[in-house]
Amino acid sequence: MKYVDEFRDPELTAHLLHELTAATTRPFRVMEVCGTHTMAIFRSGLRALLPSQIELISGPGCPVCVTSASHIDAFLQMAELPDTHLAVFGDLFRVPGSNGVTLAHARARGAKIEVVYSAVDGLELARQNPAELVIFPGIGFETTTPGIAATILAARQQNIDNFMVFSTHKTMLPPLMALLDDPALGIDGLLCPGHVSSIIGAAAYQPLAEQYDLACVVAGFEPTDILQALILMARQISEGRAEVENAYTRAVTWEGNARARAMVATIFAPADMSWRGLGLIAGSGLAIREEYAGFDAQSRLALTVPESKEPPGCLCGEILKGIIAPPACPLFGSRCTPSSPIGPCMVSSEGTCSAWFSYSGETRSATAITN
To answer: What is the model's pLDDT at position 28?
Structure first.
């Protein structure tokens, strides 16, 4: 196992590992939902240090990874429109569509595509190019949607009518419920995402604890944060409890950020959304409200999302559902690498395949996580 030493206090780490071992009285399986957690766990070498009774699996928490192939193809279609700029996050730039073409390929062929750090950068691009349409492909969970909503409000207030968003924004709880409805998943606990939880609040996971008898712990992103969360989880499981606990109190409250949620509700309404690997999930997405239709690229340009298929052989969907580990994919480490990715799980900095490839030391395996 390759790793970088990120444990800033070795004595604290040793103490937490001792506590975790003492609290772990039986085997249990934990899904870390957030892609940032996945990367932190691999980068620090934490998997190799945990008690052997604890099994970690990755969930659908990487925003780029869960963006459906159909939506990637729609982004590619938009890039070919005349007098149009696309303003995209960097992780999207190299995600292949269903035919293997990426936005990077499209730009090389002459499409106007800019990599930006935020929707505000896209709005500035629209201000600087008033004769062209600027489309921002909106991806991500509750962490990013307040910023997108604020940008749309700013565009209206500043009368910048050549800026639009193509919303594929998603919410976290519906896909988790869809996964947990499958008894084959067989997890005992959920490491809840810190960034999302800062917006929706720890209380949002109460239905998961109650309906699925699941230990839920909100965790920060330092290795010691994750260890502290796992200790709380191990104690719950050992004592037969299923509760929501917050191990990231410096950033997350029980109630969350009501102001941010209110801003999102002003611009967006719940909508059915397509997820890579999970299909169409009712009420799991956010669509731009009719009052702001002038900033909705799909509505304003009458864009049709094409029906698309996963790249042949790519098992990103099964990986996102926690059914298999990346080495079980026949493309992993051979045809699919960070330098020549086939699926988004190898492209994104938060992707599970990228983390496995970069830090696990494994190349290929046919071992599935579950039957």
So the answer is: 96
- DSSP symbols for 225-270: HHHHHHHHHHHHHHTT---EEES-TTT--SS--HHHHHHHHHHEEE
- Domain ranges within the chain, ordered by starting residue: 10-62+191-246, 69-171+256-300, 316-360
Q: Pairing state of beta strands 54-61 and 244-246?
A: unpaired
- Residue 321 three-state SS: coil
Distance CA 204, CA 257 (A): 12
DSSP assignment string, 167-182:
E--B-SHHHHHHHHT-
- For the domain made up of 69-171+256-300, the CATH class stated in words is alpha beta
Instruction: Let me know if the fold of 10-62+191-246 is the same as that of 69-171+256-300.
Output: yes
Burial class (CB in 10 A: 0-12, 13-18, 19+), 230: buried
Q: How confident is the model at residue 363 (pLDDT cuts 50, 70, 90)?
A: low
If residue 85 lies in a helix (H) or strand (E), which one and from where to where?
strand 84-88
Say how many CA atoms lie within 13 Å of 219 toward its Cβ: 31
Dig out the tokens for 110 from the structure: 């002459």
Per-residue pLDDT of 52-102, as tens digits, reads: 999 999 999 899 999 999 999 999 999 999 999 999 998 898 998 888 889
Cα 186 from chain centre: 21
CATH of range 10-62+191-246; options 3.30.70.1400, 3.30.930.10, 3.30.230.10, 3.40.50.11750 = 3.40.50.11750
Q: Residue written as tokens 């062209």? A: 132
DSSP state of 323: S
**Cα dihedral: 271, 264, 169, 304 (round 10):** 60
Residue 285 and residue 313: Cα distance in Å, rounded?
Answer: 27
- Please, what is the angle between helix 145-157 and helix 258-267, to 10°? 60
Task: Please list, residue by residue across 243-256, b when 16 or more beta carbons sit within 10 angstroms of its beta carbon and e when fewer do.
Answer: bbbbbbeeebeeeb
DSSP for residue 67: B
State which amino acid sits at residue 294: G
pLDDT at residue 100, rounded to an integer: 85
